Amino acid sequence: MGQITLKQVRKSFGDVHVIPGVDLDINDGEFVVFVGPSGCGKSTLLRLIAGLEDTTSGKIHIDGKDATDLPPAKRGLAMVFQSYALYPHMTVRKNIAFPLKMAGMNPAEIDKKVEYAARVLNLANYLDRRPGQLSGGQRQRVAIGRAIVRSPSAFLFDEPLSNLDAALRVGMRQEITELHQNLKTTMIYVTHDQVEAMTMADKIVVLNAGNIEQVGSPLELYRRPRNLFVAGFIGSPKMNLIEGAEAAKLGAKTIGIRPEHIEVGSGPWSGTVALSEHLGSDTFLKVDAGELGIMTVRGSGEVNVHTGDRIQFAPQADKVHRFDANGLRLD
Amino acid sequence: MARAVTPRRKALNTVAAWSVALIIFFPVLWMILTSFKTEPSAVAMPPQLFSADWTLENYSEVWARSDYPRFFWNSVVISVGSTLLGLAIAIPAAWSMAFVPGKRTKDLLMWMLSTKMMPAVAVLIPMYLIFQRTGLFDTKTGLVLALMLMNLPIIVWMLYTYFKEIPGEILEASRMDGASLWKEIVYVLTPMAVPGIASTMLLNVILAWNEAFWTITLTTTKAAPLSAFIASFSSPQGLFYGKLSAASTMAIAPILILGWFSQKQLVRGLTFGAVK
Protein backbone atom coordinates (compact mmCIF):
# COMPACT_ATOMS: atom_id res chain seq x y z
CA MET A 1 0.00 0.00 0.00
CA GLY A 2 1.16 3.52 -0.64
CA GLN A 3 -1.76 5.83 -1.04
CA ILE A 4 -1.10 9.40 0.02
CA THR A 5 -3.69 12.16 0.26
CA LEU A 6 -3.02 15.81 1.02
CA LYS A 7 -5.97 17.91 2.19
CA GLN A 8 -5.53 21.68 2.23
CA VAL A 9 -1.93 21.31 3.37
CA ARG A 10 -0.37 24.66 4.20
CA LYS A 11 3.14 25.60 5.25
CA SER A 12 4.33 29.02 6.35
CA PHE A 13 7.72 30.12 7.62
CA GLY A 14 6.80 33.24 9.62
CA ASP A 15 5.03 35.56 7.21
CA VAL A 16 6.17 33.63 4.15
CA HIS A 17 3.51 31.23 2.88
CA VAL A 18 5.56 28.61 1.05
CA ILE A 19 2.61 26.28 0.46
CA PRO A 20 -0.62 28.30 0.48
CA GLY A 21 -2.89 25.24 0.43
CA VAL A 22 -2.50 22.02 -1.54
CA ASP A 23 -4.94 19.19 -2.25
CA LEU A 24 -3.49 16.12 -3.91
CA ASP A 25 -4.24 12.41 -4.30
CA ILE A 26 -1.41 9.95 -4.98
CA ASN A 27 -2.53 6.44 -5.80
CA ASP A 28 -0.85 3.24 -4.69
CA GLY A 29 1.99 2.26 -6.99
CA GLU A 30 2.07 5.54 -8.89
CA PHE A 31 5.28 7.29 -9.95
CA VAL A 32 4.51 10.93 -9.22
CA VAL A 33 6.93 13.70 -10.09
CA PHE A 34 6.80 17.14 -8.46
CA VAL A 35 8.27 19.56 -10.93
CA GLY A 36 8.67 23.31 -10.92
CA PRO A 37 11.26 26.07 -10.91
CA SER A 38 13.64 26.61 -7.98
CA GLY A 39 11.85 27.87 -4.88
CA CYS A 40 8.40 26.70 -6.01
CA GLY A 41 7.91 24.65 -2.83
CA LYS A 42 8.29 21.16 -4.32
CA SER A 43 10.97 20.04 -1.85
CA THR A 44 9.01 21.57 1.04
CA LEU A 45 5.95 19.62 -0.03
CA LEU A 46 8.01 16.41 -0.10
CA ARG A 47 9.44 17.17 3.34
CA LEU A 48 5.92 17.75 4.66
CA ILE A 49 4.91 14.31 3.38
CA ALA A 50 8.09 12.83 4.90
CA GLY A 51 7.37 14.46 8.25
CA LEU A 52 10.65 16.38 8.27
CA GLU A 53 8.62 19.62 8.37
CA ASP A 54 5.44 20.23 10.35
CA THR A 55 2.38 21.42 8.46
CA THR A 56 0.97 24.81 9.43
CA SER A 57 -2.50 23.42 8.78
CA GLY A 58 -4.20 20.72 6.74
CA LYS A 59 -4.08 16.95 6.83
CA ILE A 60 -1.81 14.28 5.36
CA HIS A 61 -3.27 10.78 5.09
CA ILE A 62 -1.08 7.78 4.33
CA ASP A 63 -2.96 4.59 3.46
CA GLY A 64 -6.13 6.13 4.84
CA LYS A 65 -4.66 6.98 8.25
CA ASP A 66 -4.03 10.50 9.48
CA ALA A 67 -0.24 10.88 9.50
CA THR A 68 -0.13 14.66 9.90
CA ASP A 69 1.40 14.56 13.36
CA LEU A 70 3.34 11.31 13.07
CA PRO A 71 7.15 11.50 13.31
CA PRO A 72 9.04 10.60 10.08
CA ALA A 73 9.96 7.11 11.26
CA LYS A 74 6.33 6.16 11.89
CA ARG A 75 5.06 7.06 8.43
CA GLY A 76 6.48 4.00 6.70
CA LEU A 77 8.18 6.09 4.03
CA ALA A 78 11.79 6.01 2.84
CA MET A 79 13.63 8.99 1.45
CA VAL A 80 16.60 9.43 -0.86
CA PHE A 81 18.25 12.81 -0.44
CA GLN A 82 19.93 15.04 -2.97
CA SER A 83 23.25 14.79 -1.11
CA TYR A 84 22.70 11.02 -0.56
CA ALA A 85 23.03 11.67 3.21
CA LEU A 86 24.97 8.47 3.82
CA TYR A 87 26.55 7.90 7.22
CA PRO A 88 30.24 8.60 6.48
CA HIS A 89 31.57 6.63 9.45
CA MET A 90 29.75 3.43 8.49
CA THR A 91 30.53 0.92 5.76
CA VAL A 92 28.09 0.40 2.88
CA ARG A 93 26.83 -2.71 4.68
CA LYS A 94 26.14 -0.78 7.88
CA ASN A 95 24.55 2.09 5.97
CA ILE A 96 22.08 -0.23 4.28
CA ALA A 97 21.49 -2.15 7.51
CA PHE A 98 20.90 0.97 9.61
CA PRO A 99 17.10 1.27 9.21
CA LEU A 100 16.72 -2.46 9.92
CA LYS A 101 18.88 -2.19 13.02
CA MET A 102 16.74 0.74 14.20
CA ALA A 103 13.66 -1.42 13.64
CA GLY A 104 15.19 -4.06 15.94
CA MET A 105 15.39 -6.78 13.28
CA ASN A 106 17.55 -9.82 14.09
CA PRO A 107 21.08 -9.80 12.60
CA ALA A 108 20.58 -12.87 10.37
CA GLU A 109 17.51 -11.31 8.76
CA ILE A 110 19.37 -8.01 8.36
CA ASP A 111 22.26 -9.76 6.59
CA LYS A 112 19.87 -11.46 4.20
CA LYS A 113 18.13 -8.21 3.30
CA VAL A 114 21.39 -6.31 2.89
CA GLU A 115 22.81 -9.02 0.61
CA TYR A 116 19.64 -8.92 -1.48
CA ALA A 117 19.72 -5.11 -1.84
CA ALA A 118 23.41 -5.20 -2.68
CA ARG A 119 22.81 -7.76 -5.41
CA VAL A 120 19.90 -5.83 -6.92
CA LEU A 121 21.89 -2.60 -6.93
CA ASN A 122 25.26 -4.05 -8.02
CA LEU A 123 26.89 -3.15 -4.73
CA ALA A 124 27.99 -6.63 -3.65
CA ASN A 125 31.69 -5.82 -4.12
CA TYR A 126 31.54 -2.60 -2.18
CA LEU A 127 29.83 -3.69 1.03
CA ASP A 128 32.90 -3.18 3.18
CA ARG A 129 33.83 0.20 1.78
CA ARG A 130 32.90 3.54 3.28
CA PRO A 131 30.90 6.14 1.35
CA GLY A 132 34.03 8.26 0.87
CA GLN A 133 35.57 5.47 -1.22
CA LEU A 134 32.65 5.30 -3.67
CA SER A 135 31.78 7.23 -6.83
CA GLY A 136 28.71 9.47 -7.01
CA GLY A 137 26.61 6.84 -8.78
CA GLN A 138 27.59 4.14 -6.28
CA ARG A 139 26.73 6.42 -3.36
CA GLN A 140 23.34 7.08 -4.89
CA ARG A 141 22.80 3.32 -5.17
CA VAL A 142 23.69 2.88 -1.50
CA ALA A 143 21.13 5.57 -0.62
CA ILE A 144 18.53 3.72 -2.69
CA GLY A 145 19.58 0.43 -1.06
CA ARG A 146 19.07 1.92 2.37
CA ALA A 147 15.59 2.95 1.25
CA ILE A 148 14.49 -0.35 -0.34
CA VAL A 149 15.50 -2.71 2.50
CA ARG A 150 12.76 -1.24 4.66
CA SER A 151 10.07 -2.19 2.13
CA PRO A 152 8.41 1.20 2.64
CA SER A 153 4.88 2.00 1.50
CA ALA A 154 6.33 4.85 -0.61
CA PHE A 155 9.70 6.19 -1.69
CA LEU A 156 10.45 9.88 -1.61
CA PHE A 157 13.23 11.17 -3.88
CA ASP A 158 14.49 14.72 -3.41
CA GLU A 159 16.34 15.68 -6.61
CA PRO A 160 18.42 12.51 -6.35
CA LEU A 161 20.27 12.91 -9.63
CA SER A 162 21.27 16.56 -9.54
CA ASN A 163 24.77 15.84 -8.20
CA LEU A 164 25.58 13.36 -10.96
CA ASP A 165 27.10 14.13 -14.34
CA ALA A 166 24.90 14.07 -17.43
CA ALA A 167 25.78 10.55 -18.63
CA LEU A 168 25.39 8.97 -15.20
CA ARG A 169 22.11 10.82 -14.71
CA VAL A 170 20.56 9.17 -17.76
CA GLY A 171 21.68 5.74 -16.52
CA MET A 172 20.38 6.28 -12.99
CA ARG A 173 17.12 7.65 -14.37
CA GLN A 174 16.56 4.37 -16.15
CA GLU A 175 17.58 2.38 -13.08
CA ILE A 176 15.06 4.19 -10.89
CA THR A 177 12.33 3.67 -13.50
CA GLU A 178 13.17 -0.05 -13.64
CA LEU A 179 13.19 -0.22 -9.87
CA HIS A 180 9.69 1.23 -9.86
CA GLN A 181 8.54 -1.30 -12.43
CA ASN A 182 9.95 -4.14 -10.34
CA LEU A 183 8.82 -2.99 -6.91
CA LYS A 184 5.54 -1.39 -7.98
CA THR A 185 5.77 0.83 -4.91
CA THR A 186 4.54 4.42 -4.85
CA MET A 187 7.33 6.85 -5.66
CA ILE A 188 7.30 10.61 -5.26
CA TYR A 189 10.13 12.26 -7.08
CA VAL A 190 11.10 15.92 -6.91
CA THR A 191 13.00 17.53 -9.74
CA HIS A 192 13.37 20.84 -11.53
CA ASP A 193 14.36 18.98 -14.69
CA GLN A 194 11.30 18.60 -16.87
CA VAL A 195 13.00 15.95 -19.03
CA GLU A 196 13.29 13.74 -15.92
CA ALA A 197 9.66 14.49 -15.15
CA MET A 198 8.46 13.64 -18.66
CA THR A 199 10.48 10.42 -18.94
CA MET A 200 9.85 8.94 -15.50
CA ALA A 201 6.41 9.98 -14.32
CA ASP A 202 3.03 8.32 -14.42
CA LYS A 203 1.71 11.58 -13.10
CA ILE A 204 3.33 15.01 -13.05
CA VAL A 205 2.44 17.69 -10.50
CA VAL A 206 3.53 21.10 -11.78
CA LEU A 207 4.14 23.53 -8.92
CA ASN A 208 4.59 27.27 -9.00
CA ALA A 209 4.91 29.49 -5.92
CA GLY A 210 3.57 26.69 -3.72
CA ASN A 211 0.44 26.18 -5.80
CA ILE A 212 -0.37 23.20 -7.98
CA GLU A 213 -0.74 24.52 -11.53
CA GLN A 214 -1.72 21.20 -13.10
CA VAL A 215 -1.74 17.49 -12.39
CA GLY A 216 -1.71 14.99 -15.21
CA SER A 217 0.18 12.44 -17.24
CA PRO A 218 3.27 13.73 -19.10
CA LEU A 219 1.47 13.73 -22.45
CA GLU A 220 -1.66 15.38 -21.05
CA LEU A 221 0.49 18.21 -19.80
CA TYR A 222 2.28 18.41 -23.13
CA ARG A 223 -0.84 18.31 -25.21
CA ARG A 224 -3.22 20.33 -23.08
CA PRO A 225 -1.41 22.65 -20.69
CA ARG A 226 -3.99 24.19 -18.38
CA ASN A 227 -2.37 27.61 -18.29
CA LEU A 228 0.50 29.71 -19.58
CA PHE A 229 2.84 28.62 -16.77
CA VAL A 230 2.51 24.93 -17.59
CA ALA A 231 2.66 25.69 -21.31
CA GLY A 232 5.96 27.49 -20.82
CA PHE A 233 7.41 25.00 -18.36
CA ILE A 234 6.67 21.67 -20.00
CA GLY A 235 8.41 20.99 -23.28
CA SER A 236 11.95 21.52 -24.46
CA PRO A 237 12.69 23.84 -26.16
CA LYS A 238 10.00 26.04 -24.66
CA MET A 239 6.69 26.78 -26.33
CA ASN A 240 6.59 30.03 -28.34
CA LEU A 241 4.05 32.41 -26.82
CA ILE A 242 2.60 35.13 -29.03
CA GLU A 243 0.41 38.06 -28.05
CA GLY A 244 -1.22 40.85 -30.06
CA ALA A 245 -2.88 40.76 -33.44
CA GLU A 246 -1.97 37.15 -34.31
CA ALA A 247 -3.50 35.96 -31.02
CA ALA A 248 -6.55 38.18 -31.46
CA LYS A 249 -7.19 36.61 -34.88
CA LEU A 250 -7.80 33.32 -33.01
CA GLY A 251 -9.89 34.96 -30.31
CA ALA A 252 -7.23 34.68 -27.60
CA LYS A 253 -5.04 37.00 -25.53
CA THR A 254 -2.04 34.71 -26.02
CA ILE A 255 -1.42 31.83 -28.38
CA GLY A 256 1.23 29.17 -27.96
CA ILE A 257 2.93 26.97 -30.50
CA ARG A 258 5.63 24.42 -29.75
CA PRO A 259 8.87 24.65 -31.80
CA GLU A 260 8.27 21.15 -33.20
CA HIS A 261 4.81 22.14 -34.43
CA ILE A 262 6.07 24.79 -36.83
CA GLU A 263 6.70 23.97 -40.48
CA VAL A 264 9.36 25.78 -42.45
CA GLY A 265 9.05 26.54 -46.17
CA SER A 266 5.83 28.39 -46.71
CA GLY A 267 3.18 30.02 -44.60
CA PRO A 268 1.89 33.30 -43.28
CA TRP A 269 4.81 34.04 -40.95
CA SER A 270 8.26 35.16 -42.00
CA GLY A 271 11.48 36.15 -40.35
CA THR A 272 15.27 36.16 -40.42
CA VAL A 273 17.21 33.25 -38.94
CA ALA A 274 19.24 34.71 -36.07
CA LEU A 275 20.79 31.40 -35.07
CA SER A 276 20.77 27.92 -36.52
CA GLU A 277 21.89 24.79 -34.70
CA HIS A 278 22.32 21.65 -36.79
CA LEU A 279 22.39 18.54 -34.63
CA GLY A 280 21.84 16.04 -37.43
CA SER A 281 18.77 14.51 -35.87
CA ASP A 282 17.20 17.95 -35.42
CA THR A 283 17.71 21.50 -36.54
CA PHE A 284 16.95 24.31 -34.09
CA LEU A 285 16.37 27.80 -35.43
CA LYS A 286 15.97 31.10 -33.61
CA VAL A 287 13.97 33.30 -35.96
CA ASP A 288 13.52 37.04 -35.58
CA ALA A 289 9.91 37.28 -36.76
CA GLY A 290 9.31 41.02 -36.28
CA GLU A 291 6.07 41.65 -34.41
CA LEU A 292 5.80 37.99 -33.38
CA GLY A 293 9.08 38.28 -31.54
CA ILE A 294 11.91 35.73 -31.46
CA MET A 295 10.49 32.33 -32.40
CA THR A 296 12.11 28.95 -31.77
CA VAL A 297 11.61 26.43 -34.55
CA ARG A 298 12.54 22.76 -34.45
CA GLY A 299 12.94 20.97 -37.75
CA SER A 300 13.19 17.22 -37.90
CA GLY A 301 16.46 15.94 -39.38
CA GLU A 302 18.67 18.20 -41.48
CA VAL A 303 17.01 21.44 -42.63
CA ASN A 304 18.94 23.42 -45.17
CA VAL A 305 18.55 26.83 -43.53
CA HIS A 306 21.38 28.90 -42.11
CA THR A 307 21.95 31.97 -39.99
CA GLY A 308 20.94 35.13 -41.89
CA ASP A 309 18.49 33.35 -44.23
CA ARG A 310 15.01 34.77 -44.67
CA ILE A 311 12.38 32.06 -44.21
CA GLN A 312 8.63 31.59 -44.22
CA PHE A 313 6.97 29.30 -41.73
CA ALA A 314 3.57 28.28 -40.42
CA PRO A 315 2.11 26.66 -37.29
CA GLN A 316 0.29 23.34 -37.59
CA ALA A 317 -3.28 24.56 -37.20
CA ASP A 318 -4.47 21.90 -34.78
CA LYS A 319 -1.46 22.37 -32.50
CA VAL A 320 -2.04 25.99 -31.58
CA HIS A 321 -2.85 26.53 -27.90
CA ARG A 322 -5.07 29.49 -26.97
CA PHE A 323 -5.06 31.30 -23.61
CA ASP A 324 -7.31 34.04 -22.21
CA ALA A 325 -6.34 37.24 -20.40
CA ASN A 326 -5.97 35.31 -17.14
CA GLY A 327 -3.55 32.93 -18.78
CA LEU A 328 -6.03 30.03 -18.71
CA ARG A 329 -6.50 27.64 -21.59
CA LEU A 330 -9.38 28.33 -24.01
CA ASP A 331 -11.08 25.36 -25.57
CA MET B 1 45.16 22.74 -7.98
CA ALA B 2 48.29 22.11 -5.94
CA ARG B 3 50.90 24.85 -6.12
CA ALA B 4 54.36 23.74 -7.12
CA VAL B 5 56.84 24.21 -4.27
CA THR B 6 60.46 24.65 -5.23
CA PRO B 7 63.12 23.04 -2.97
CA ARG B 8 64.46 26.51 -2.17
CA ARG B 9 61.06 27.75 -1.08
CA LYS B 10 60.52 24.60 0.97
CA ALA B 11 63.84 25.13 2.75
CA LEU B 12 62.96 28.76 3.49
CA ASN B 13 59.56 27.74 4.84
CA THR B 14 61.17 25.12 7.06
CA VAL B 15 63.69 27.60 8.46
CA ALA B 16 60.93 30.15 9.09
CA ALA B 17 58.68 27.58 10.79
CA TRP B 18 61.51 26.34 13.03
CA SER B 19 62.48 29.92 13.95
CA VAL B 20 58.94 30.82 14.97
CA ALA B 21 58.57 27.54 16.89
CA LEU B 22 61.86 28.14 18.72
CA ILE B 23 60.92 31.71 19.63
CA ILE B 24 57.61 30.47 21.07
CA PHE B 25 59.19 27.52 22.86
CA PHE B 26 62.27 29.36 24.14
CA PRO B 27 60.76 30.61 27.46
CA VAL B 28 59.65 27.07 28.27
CA LEU B 29 63.07 25.71 27.36
CA TRP B 30 64.76 28.40 29.45
CA MET B 31 62.52 27.53 32.39
CA ILE B 32 63.34 23.82 32.11
CA LEU B 33 67.08 24.52 31.84
CA THR B 34 66.95 26.92 34.80
CA SER B 35 65.23 24.30 36.94
CA PHE B 36 68.41 22.22 36.74
CA LYS B 37 70.73 25.10 37.69
CA THR B 38 71.93 26.11 41.12
CA GLU B 39 70.48 29.42 42.36
CA PRO B 40 73.75 31.36 41.64
CA SER B 41 73.95 30.06 38.06
CA ALA B 42 70.23 30.73 37.60
CA VAL B 43 70.75 34.45 38.20
CA ALA B 44 74.28 34.67 36.73
CA MET B 45 75.10 37.66 34.54
CA PRO B 46 75.56 37.31 31.64
CA PRO B 47 72.91 34.58 31.58
CA GLN B 48 74.14 31.07 30.86
CA LEU B 49 72.09 28.85 28.63
CA PHE B 50 73.84 25.74 29.90
CA SER B 51 75.18 25.60 33.39
CA ALA B 52 78.37 23.75 34.38
CA ASP B 53 76.91 22.60 37.69
CA TRP B 54 73.76 20.63 36.92
CA THR B 55 71.63 19.73 39.91
CA LEU B 56 68.38 18.06 40.88
CA GLU B 57 68.41 19.87 44.19
CA ASN B 58 65.65 22.30 43.16
CA TYR B 59 63.28 19.44 42.50
CA SER B 60 64.02 17.65 45.74
CA GLU B 61 63.58 20.87 47.70
CA VAL B 62 60.33 21.76 45.98
CA TRP B 63 59.04 18.23 46.54
CA ALA B 64 60.04 18.30 50.20
CA ARG B 65 58.66 21.80 50.84
CA SER B 66 55.18 21.27 49.41
CA ASP B 67 52.54 18.67 48.89
CA TYR B 68 52.85 18.36 45.10
CA PRO B 69 50.52 15.31 44.70
CA ARG B 70 47.66 17.22 46.34
CA PHE B 71 48.08 20.23 44.04
CA PHE B 72 48.34 17.87 41.08
CA TRP B 73 45.17 16.02 42.05
CA ASN B 74 43.32 19.31 42.53
CA SER B 75 44.42 20.40 39.05
CA VAL B 76 43.21 17.14 37.54
CA VAL B 77 39.82 17.32 39.26
CA ILE B 78 39.29 20.99 38.44
CA SER B 79 40.37 20.89 34.80
CA VAL B 80 38.77 17.58 33.86
CA GLY B 81 35.69 18.21 36.01
CA SER B 82 35.02 21.67 34.61
CA THR B 83 35.53 20.39 31.06
CA LEU B 84 33.19 17.40 31.45
CA LEU B 85 30.52 19.50 33.13
CA GLY B 86 30.94 22.12 30.40
CA LEU B 87 30.56 19.46 27.69
CA ALA B 88 27.44 18.05 29.34
CA ILE B 89 25.84 21.48 29.14
CA ALA B 90 27.36 22.56 25.83
CA ILE B 91 26.56 19.47 23.72
CA PRO B 92 22.76 19.89 23.93
CA ALA B 93 23.14 23.68 23.65
CA ALA B 94 25.36 23.50 20.56
CA TRP B 95 23.14 20.76 19.13
CA SER B 96 20.02 22.91 19.28
CA MET B 97 21.87 26.01 18.04
CA ALA B 98 23.31 24.11 15.07
CA PHE B 99 20.30 22.04 14.04
CA VAL B 100 17.21 23.87 15.29
CA PRO B 101 18.35 27.48 15.37
CA GLY B 102 15.92 30.18 16.44
CA LYS B 103 15.72 33.75 15.25
CA ARG B 104 18.12 34.94 17.94
CA THR B 105 20.63 32.06 17.91
CA LYS B 106 23.35 34.13 16.23
CA ASP B 107 22.83 36.98 18.71
CA LEU B 108 22.96 34.53 21.59
CA LEU B 109 26.23 33.08 20.34
CA MET B 110 27.72 36.56 19.97
CA TRP B 111 26.54 37.48 23.45
CA MET B 112 28.12 34.34 24.88
CA LEU B 113 31.39 35.15 23.17
CA SER B 114 31.23 38.77 24.29
CA THR B 115 31.38 37.62 27.92
CA LYS B 116 34.91 36.41 27.15
CA MET B 117 35.85 39.96 26.16
CA MET B 118 35.10 41.21 29.67
CA PRO B 119 38.22 41.46 31.86
CA ALA B 120 37.95 38.83 34.59
CA VAL B 121 38.93 41.37 37.23
CA ALA B 122 35.65 43.23 36.55
CA VAL B 123 33.71 40.45 38.30
CA LEU B 124 36.36 39.61 40.86
CA ILE B 125 34.64 41.17 43.87
CA PRO B 126 31.13 39.81 43.19
CA MET B 127 32.54 36.36 42.46
CA TYR B 128 34.68 36.44 45.59
CA LEU B 129 31.74 37.46 47.76
CA ILE B 130 29.38 34.91 46.19
CA PHE B 131 31.94 32.16 46.69
CA GLN B 132 32.53 33.15 50.31
CA ARG B 133 28.86 33.36 51.21
CA THR B 134 27.82 30.15 49.47
CA GLY B 135 30.64 28.13 50.99
CA LEU B 136 32.25 27.51 47.60
CA PHE B 137 35.43 29.38 48.49
CA ASP B 138 38.49 27.14 48.45
CA THR B 139 36.52 24.11 47.29
CA LYS B 140 37.11 22.03 44.18
CA THR B 141 33.37 22.17 43.42
CA GLY B 142 33.54 25.96 43.42
CA LEU B 143 36.48 26.03 41.04
CA VAL B 144 34.92 23.41 38.77
CA LEU B 145 31.85 25.65 38.54
CA ALA B 146 33.83 28.85 38.05
CA LEU B 147 36.12 27.46 35.35
CA MET B 148 33.23 25.69 33.63
CA LEU B 149 31.38 29.02 33.43
CA MET B 150 34.50 30.81 32.21
CA ASN B 151 35.11 28.30 29.44
CA LEU B 152 31.50 27.47 28.54
CA PRO B 153 31.29 30.08 25.73
CA ILE B 154 34.40 28.59 24.11
CA ILE B 155 33.09 25.03 24.46
CA VAL B 156 29.71 25.96 23.00
CA TRP B 157 31.31 27.89 20.15
CA MET B 158 33.72 25.11 19.27
CA LEU B 159 31.04 22.41 19.36
CA TYR B 160 28.62 24.64 17.44
CA THR B 161 31.23 25.06 14.70
CA TYR B 162 31.90 21.31 14.58
CA PHE B 163 28.20 20.41 14.58
CA LYS B 164 27.53 22.92 11.79
CA GLU B 165 29.93 20.91 9.64
CA ILE B 166 27.67 17.86 9.90
CA PRO B 167 25.11 17.99 7.09
CA GLY B 168 21.59 18.26 8.52
CA GLU B 169 20.38 15.84 5.84
CA ILE B 170 22.37 13.01 7.44
CA LEU B 171 20.51 13.51 10.71
CA GLU B 172 17.21 13.77 8.82
CA ALA B 173 18.09 10.53 7.04
CA SER B 174 18.58 8.84 10.40
CA ARG B 175 15.17 10.13 11.50
CA MET B 176 13.62 8.71 8.32
CA ASP B 177 15.45 5.44 9.06
CA GLY B 178 13.64 5.17 12.35
CA ALA B 179 16.22 6.51 14.80
CA SER B 180 14.88 8.16 17.94
CA LEU B 181 16.58 11.37 19.09
CA TRP B 182 18.72 9.35 21.50
CA LYS B 183 19.78 6.82 18.83
CA GLU B 184 20.43 9.67 16.40
CA ILE B 185 22.86 11.17 18.93
CA VAL B 186 24.49 7.85 19.83
CA TYR B 187 24.80 6.23 16.39
CA VAL B 188 25.09 9.18 14.05
CA LEU B 189 25.99 12.51 15.63
CA THR B 190 28.51 11.38 18.24
CA PRO B 191 30.63 9.14 15.99
CA MET B 192 30.71 11.92 13.42
CA ALA B 193 31.55 14.59 16.01
CA VAL B 194 34.08 12.58 18.05
CA PRO B 195 37.12 14.41 16.66
CA GLY B 196 35.46 17.75 17.39
CA ILE B 197 34.34 16.78 20.88
CA ALA B 198 37.81 15.36 21.66
CA SER B 199 39.66 18.46 20.51
CA THR B 200 37.25 20.71 22.41
CA MET B 201 37.82 18.61 25.50
CA LEU B 202 41.61 18.69 25.19
CA LEU B 203 41.77 22.41 24.60
CA ASN B 204 39.53 23.12 27.56
CA VAL B 205 41.48 20.83 29.87
CA ILE B 206 44.60 22.77 28.90
CA LEU B 207 42.88 26.14 29.40
CA ALA B 208 41.52 25.09 32.79
CA TRP B 209 44.85 23.55 33.84
CA ASN B 210 46.73 26.76 33.05
CA GLU B 211 44.10 29.11 34.48
CA ALA B 212 45.70 31.15 37.24
CA PHE B 213 43.57 34.22 37.97
CA TRP B 214 40.54 32.49 39.45
CA THR B 215 42.35 29.48 40.87
CA ILE B 216 44.70 31.71 42.87
CA THR B 217 41.98 34.18 43.89
CA LEU B 218 39.32 31.69 44.93
CA THR B 219 41.50 29.25 46.85
CA THR B 220 43.79 29.29 49.84
CA THR B 221 45.06 25.81 50.62
CA LYS B 222 42.54 22.96 50.29
CA ALA B 223 41.48 23.31 46.67
CA ALA B 224 44.58 25.06 45.32
CA PRO B 225 45.78 23.56 42.02
CA LEU B 226 49.22 23.67 40.41
CA SER B 227 48.90 27.30 39.31
CA ALA B 228 48.64 28.24 42.99
CA PHE B 229 51.53 25.86 43.69
CA ILE B 230 53.75 27.90 41.32
CA ALA B 231 52.58 31.17 42.86
CA SER B 232 53.51 29.91 46.30
CA PHE B 233 57.16 29.93 45.23
CA SER B 234 57.23 33.65 44.56
CA SER B 235 57.92 34.52 48.16
CA PRO B 236 58.28 37.94 49.79
CA GLN B 237 61.91 37.06 50.59
CA GLY B 238 62.70 37.24 46.90
CA LEU B 239 62.50 35.00 43.91
CA PHE B 240 64.41 31.78 43.86
CA TYR B 241 64.55 31.20 40.14
CA GLY B 242 65.85 27.67 40.33
CA LYS B 243 63.08 26.50 42.61
CA LEU B 244 60.42 28.57 40.87
CA SER B 245 61.47 27.02 37.56
CA ALA B 246 61.44 23.52 39.04
CA ALA B 247 57.96 24.10 40.46
CA SER B 248 56.74 25.52 37.13
CA THR B 249 58.23 22.61 35.20
CA MET B 250 56.51 20.17 37.54
CA ALA B 251 53.25 22.06 37.09
CA ILE B 252 53.26 22.16 33.32
CA ALA B 253 54.85 18.75 32.70
CA PRO B 254 51.60 16.72 32.83
CA ILE B 255 49.74 19.01 30.47
CA LEU B 256 52.77 19.35 28.19
CA ILE B 257 52.94 15.57 27.87
CA LEU B 258 49.18 15.34 27.28
CA GLY B 259 49.42 18.08 24.65
CA TRP B 260 52.40 16.40 22.98
CA PHE B 261 50.60 13.11 22.56
CA SER B 262 47.32 14.64 21.49
CA GLN B 263 48.57 17.36 19.16
CA LYS B 264 47.31 15.51 16.10
CA GLN B 265 43.85 15.36 17.63
CA LEU B 266 44.03 19.00 18.64
CA VAL B 267 44.62 20.32 15.16
CA ARG B 268 42.50 17.78 13.38
CA GLY B 269 38.93 18.87 14.08
CA LEU B 270 36.26 17.65 11.74
CA THR B 271 37.64 16.74 8.36
CA PHE B 272 34.98 14.50 6.89
CA GLY B 273 34.58 16.56 3.75
CA ALA B 274 31.35 16.83 1.90
CA VAL B 275 29.35 13.67 1.40
CA LYS B 276 28.35 14.90 -2.02
Describe the structure.
The complex is a heterodimer of chains A (331) and B (276). Chain A has nine helices and 18 strands. Chain A has 331 residues and is of the alpha+beta class. Chain A has two domains: 227 residues, P-loop containing nucleotide triphosphate hydrolases (Rossmann fold, 3-Layer(aba) Sandwich); 90 residues, OB fold (Dihydrolipoamide Acetyltransferase, E2P) (Beta Barrel). In chain A, strands 6-7-8-3-9-10 form a six-stranded mixed sheet, with helices on both faces. In chain A, strands 2-1-4-5 form a four-stranded antiparallel sheet, with helices on one face. A four-stranded antiparallel sheet of chain A has the order 11-12-17-18. In chain A, helix 2 packs across helix 3 and helix 2 packs parallel to helix 4. Chain B is mainly alpha-helical and 276 residues long. Chain B has two domains: 53 residues, no CATH class; 202 residues, MetI-like (MetI-like fold, Orthogonal Bundle), CATH 1.10.3720. Chain B is built from twelve helices and two strands; from the N terminus they run H-H-H-H-H-H-H-H-H-H-H-E-E-H. Chain B has a two-stranded antiparallel sheet with strand order 1-2. In chain B, helix 4 packs parallel to helix 7 and helix 7 crosses helix 9. The longest helix of chain B has 32 residues. Chain B starts with 6 loop residues before the first helix and ends in an 8-residue tail after the last helix. Classes of the chains: A alpha+beta (331), B mainly alpha (276). Chains A and B meet through strand 6, helix 2 and helix 4 of A and helix 8 and helix 9 of B.
